[in-house]
Amino acid sequence: MTSAPLQLDTIERVVLETPQYTRVHLPALTAARFFAAFGVLVFHCTAWQLWPDSVARTIASTGYVAVAFFFILSGFILTYTYWTPDRAGIRPIAFYKARLARIYPMYMLALLLALPFYAKAVLNGHGGASQGIRDALLTVTLQQSQVPNAALTWNPPGWSLSTEAFFYLVFPLALPFLVRGSLKRVGVVAALSVIAAIGLPVLYLVTNPDGLGSPTYATEATWLNALRYHPLARLPEFLLGICLARFFLELPVLRAPRVGMLMTVAGAGGVATVLAFADHIPYVLLHNGLLAPAFAALILGLATSTPVTKALSARWIVLLGESSYALYILHIPLFMLAGSVARRVAFEGDESAAFTLVFLVFAIAVSIAAFKAVEVPARRYLLKRRVATT
Known about the structure:
By secondary structure, the protein is mainly alpha-helical. The chain is 72% helix and 0% strand. The chain is built from 17 helices and no strands. Helix 2 (27-45) runs antiparallel to helix 4, helix 4 crosses helix 7 and helix 16 (324-345) packs antiparallel against helix 17.
């Protein structure tokens, strides 16, 4: 008789030698990841620039704001998962290996899918062979966001995984400082994080170090890229997420359904209001920290038990959320592959409405398949190997 397979969260706790404390699963936050990833998908893979002026076009044109949501959510979920009542620290090396098992297999699959297009660009002289090799090494080792002008190399969404990897390095050091200190200290860090997240783009606008007029999502410049992609510029969002989790776990009032509903309405309303006026708001503010307070409220709201979270806990929505990482990291390589086919068989190619609809469905279906066939088995295998050697 064989023993039942270990679940992923159980395996990871064994790897980290973390006591098994009862902690309520938060399926609504898992589901929310899908909507954020879908926003990025629509921004990158539809011809929204050709759409008539409308609310749909405005929302599609600001899909990049979802990355800030991911960064805050990452800090929240990691703290919610690994913080323990005895406030014990995390074994850094074991934590890093567990995080690598979580992100790297799917990350490498995306690079393999995008490799023909990247190799073609390098061979065609975009930057030269030496720069192409340098950028490839940075990308494979998850360091590209630390060289902002190389951040979008090979598979552009990978820059945020590079930034996340830096957050993972910081987390075992930041968590003990924040969980062992008073809530007053945590409040100060949270306030400073919001100020920094919003203040850095404001500082950029005031000083205009690149000498630009009004930068947009398509603008490339050294300081602008550093603001958008460098881990230190995005660290305040991650730290805010850590602080939110500490408040959520230690202040029962934040877990009350009425407060949760208020937070959900306030957060969603704040996001909707800001995006409705996105055409009148400087791009750099939207890209980085302007929505951090609204995202923070929304995360706290979706972590509680409300009618909204119950609706988002449906199994099929949660599955979409579980597959959201695959959707996020694979959508550009899939779009390049599908677009190259579409341009050969149709005049409008990848700008047609029919292609867009088919591709969106296709990308979601592939992400679910990749989650089940690649992400889960690879993570389980790597974590079991770690368990077997400890």
